Each structure stands twice: as structure tokens, then as C-alpha cells.
Amino acid sequence: MPSARTTSYRTVAAFVVAPMVPAVILAGVMLAAGGDSQTLGYAAFAGYISYPFALLVGLPSYLVMRRRHWDGLRAYLLLGLGLGAFFVALFAGLAGFEGDAADPAWVDLLANLAVLLSFVLACAVASTLVFWLIVRPDLHRP
Fold this sequence. Notes:
The protein is about 75% helix and about 0% strand. By secondary structure, the protein is mainly alpha-helical.
């Protein structure tokens, strides 16, 4: 069983690395689709969104899962799906609150909600998988 210090380091490392996964995936997709270096700004923007989301939503979720001993990969992947769906709902709700002043680019993005949802869910699951692989909460069972 790992020491408490090692567990703490792994948890901090996971919260540093895992939120970057959606930005890296987005950058790879944009470059593969023929985007230039300017389109990588979207990947940086994804990083600006994912870190606060990880701290405000992911950290409390991790603490609840840890307390309840839900430490298996399946539980974490289901959490990732749930958080991804929550993120899309939050994003759609915030974009909808602007009403008539909504930017047409946001409206077009919301019109393609099926693509957005599948991409965000894939990124959320990938990020959660990376988090779980770094922390490995299943190895800390008492």
C-alpha cells in the first residue's frame, strides 16, 4: 500500500495532468482537420475551461467517491460521462441565457449538439481515465 505522501503527490499530479487531456485531444483533432497554429487557440481555451471545472466540480466529486470507496475504473468512467453531460448542459444553458445577443458561432455550435456532446463525452472519459491511471484509487483500499 502506498504511503500517504505518495498518494497525495499522485492526486496533485492527476489534477494537474488530467484537465489538460481535452485540450490535447482538441489540438490533435484541429491539426488533423487541417487547422493552422491559430486554431490551437481553441485548445488553450479548452485548458482555461477544464482546469476551473476540474477544481470546482471534479475535486468535490473525487472527494465524495473517495469517501464512499467508489474506486473502480467503471465508477470513474461513469463519473466522467456524468461530468461531461453536466458540462454540455451547463454550456448550453449559459449560451442560451444571452438570448438575442448570443454570438452566432455559439448558436451554430449548439445546433451541432450531437457532435459536441459526443466529443465532450469522449474527452471527459479520456480525462477521467488519465486521472484514474495516475491516482489508482483502487490500490489504496484499507
